[in-house]
Automatic annotation (TrEMBL):
Keywords: DNA damage, DNA repair, Endonuclease, Glycosidase, Hydrolase, Iron, Iron-sulfur, Metal-binding, Nuclease
SMART domains per record: ENDO3c (SM00478), HhH1 (SM00278)
Cofactor(s) this protein cannot do without: [4Fe-4S] cluster
Domain Helix-hairpin-helix DNA-binding motif class, residue spans: 108-127
Reactions that this protein is recorded to catalyse: Hydrolyzes free adenine bases from 7,8-dihydro-8-oxoguanine:adenine mismatched double-stranded DNA, leaving an apurinic site
GO terms assigned for molecular function: 8-oxo-7,8-dihydroguanine DNA N-glycosylase activity; adenine/guanine mispair binding; endonuclease activity; iron-sulfur cluster binding; metal ion binding; oxidized purine DNA binding; purine-specific mismatch base pair DNA N-glycosylase activity
PANTHER family to which the protein is assigned, alphabetical: ADENINE DNA GLYCOSYLASE
Swiss-Prot/TrEMBL GO biological process terms: base-excision repair; mismatch repair
Cited SUPFAM superfamilies: DNA-glycosylase
Cited Pfam families: HHH (PF00633), HhH-GPD (PF00730)
Protein name, per record: Adenine DNA glycosylase
Similarity comment: family membership: Belongs to the Nth/MutY family.
HhH-GPD domain span: 38-187
């Protein structure tokens, strides 16, 4: 498909059916960083109320940097993947201390921040600073696969998709282009287009209930709720005490919890 025709299809769709989110109404890099980390592997409907509450508590990077980790984890509770909250908190401290409260504008500097990978760095540069980076996520992947690899027999790699994105990128307005592309790809998925069989990058996520993620979230929530959590009193279906203690040890090693006394957990 020609790039010009594809852009016309995407932009025409976007004019009629663009989605509205508060993080699209701002170019504040801190606010966009918050939304990007929250949206990782988390549905938009779950993120929206947490995002609004978060900005009430931590309206800017300095407010977040001055908060305690317990306050940050409490505000994040319910979103899962709690390391993201810790990474965001640690990044805020670095941004304040090293960059005077200004979120970096270069890919290299952003990648030095905790938990900021290739996608998040490029997304932040595109959405906050309107820089023509290559942003690839699930909805964009669906749109590219549908129009440029529809009859492709072999699995398509992300590097192949990025080659297409480079050729079709709207360099004058990457911010709006990616918003439009995301919305169009989301619509394709809603309409039933199944692209998973085409991509090499796809891995099926295990159910949350009964998973290690479930246990991690449980230990964090209970530690926040009771201040101190005795491991020997925890009983979770499908998990032995040994397994629970191993997961707790991982949380301590990651700096999310601490074990001030043997077998007793608390938030750092």
């Amino acid at each position: 498909m020609q790039a010009s025709l594809f852009k016309k299809i995407v932009y025409n769709f976007y004019k009629q059916y663009c989605r509205s989110f508060p993080w699209r109404e701002t170019v504040d890099p801190y606010v966009i960083l918050v939304s990007e980390l929250m949206l990782q592997q988390t549905q938009t409907y779950r993120v929206l109320p947490k995002y609004l509450d978060w900005l009430m508590l931590f309206p800017n990077v300095k407010a977040l940097a001055n908060a305690s980790l317990a306050e940050v984890l409490q505000a994040w509770s319910g979103l899962g993947y709690n390391r993201r909250a810790k990474y965001l908190w640690e990044s805020a401290k670095i941004i304040v201390e090293k960059y005077g409260g200004e979120v970096p504008r270069t890919y290299e500097e952003l990648r030095q921040l905790p938990g900021i990978g290739e996608y998040t760095a490029n997304a932040l540069l595109a959405f906050a600073y309107n820089q023509p980076t290559i942003v690839l996520e699930t909805n964009i992947r669906a749109a590219i696969l549908h129009h440029f690899f529809e009859n492709h027999q072999e699995k398509v790699s992300d590097s192949q998709i990025k080659e297409v994105l480079t050729k079709i990128l709207d360099k004058k307005s990457p911010r709006n282009w990616y918003y439009a592309l995301m919305d169009y790809g989301n619509w394709l998925k809603f309409e039933g287009y199944d692209y998973f069989h085409q991509q090499k990058a796809h891995t099926k996520q295990k159910p949350f209930k009964g998973s290690e993620r479930f246990v991690r979230g449980y230990l964090l929530r209970e530690s926040l709720k009771y201040k101190e959590l005795k491991l020997k009193e925890i009983q979770l279906s499908g998990y032995t005490q040994e397994q629970i203690r191993k997961i707790a040890k991982d949380l301590v090693a990651e700096g999310l919890l601490q074990e001030r006394k043997p077998g007793i957990l608390s938030v750092v």
